[in-house]
Amino acid sequence: MSERPIRIGVAGLGRAFTLMLPTLSADPRVQLVAACDPRPEARARFESDFKGRTYETVEALCADSAVEVVYVATPHQHHAGHACTAAAHGKHVLVEKPMAVTLAEATRMVEAAANARVHLVVGHSHSFDAPIARTRELIASGRYGRLRMVTASYFTDFLYRPRRPEELDTAQGGGVVFSQAAHQVDIVRLLAGGRTRTVRAATGNWDARRATEGAYSALLTFDDGAFASLTYSGYGHFDGDELMGWTSEIGRAKDPAQYGHARRALQQAAGADAEARAKAARNYGGDRYIASTEAPWHEHFGFVLASCERADLRPLPNGVVVYGDDAPEDNELARPRVPRAEVIDELYAAVIGNAPPLHDGRWGRASLEVCLGILQSAREAREIALEHQVGVETHARADGPAGAR
User: How far apart are CA 217 and CA 239, in angstroms?
Assistant: First the structure.
């Protein structure tokens, strides 16, 4: 496989781009050639950092002949339209999670990629993380018997970080189910083989000042009889990173003395406009933007335990601990040289080698269906049967037909 870089144009220079920037900057297999964003300060920073072209609109970015892949990192409610625009221009697409906010939008994206004969990869989600992938390998080896149960929980201050108004509006993809369950669902689907049968859930909406889902618990069942319990709270009290050795979600050491920092900082932003400005100031190009530093360990999404018939497997930022019959066994991983390199592994293999990505449009749609099922189940107080699920081993094919460019 050629090692020439793939040329990426970025749609949206906000928070998602900020988190992917260490990957896009450090991985020699990618080259940032263009970007679009409505903020002039973000465009100016991109031009200075990467000597690339910038545009005010996604349409103009997609018309740039130098761009091979469009990384769609715009707000959730725009993912479908922007991904379809990119596909219509013959560009491969890397789209942030959640891939869309409705199943109809997700299906439109899958069909647009297939019709244009391009690849669609949905990520980053934490199911890309190396410890999760290693856990899946250990399960698939069969040495610990069948997977029977997955337990996943995470507690963060998500709801009290600076937000734009639509991020607190469920109808526009706001709240923790769209933003955070997208990670957790992807993880447990990968570990359990992908095909979720039903979901039963409850959600919490406990702060009238931030009137969207801030917490959920869900029980998922799978076709082979396995089941998974998912719990998440973004209300900023207990910090789930305590269970991960005070390693943060993005793999860096965390200071427990910063307890309550998000709530205190938010109190300084009075009103929705001030809060949106505070978020913009911290984003790429803003006057309070701080470039990411190297992360010593792999990323994570809180406590995960995969229970097989003969062992429990726990992914951690530095590897996987296997709790067998006799004694725990450490399955260590090397420190990451490039954070989130697994996303580029999958994208590069698809674009250059036409290899079917695991996290393709159908996989992303299946995870979105579970997230929507969590919301529907909580709203209607009943179990929801799922219809658009795909398996890890059986679904893999390109979103575009063989020979996609």
Answer: 17
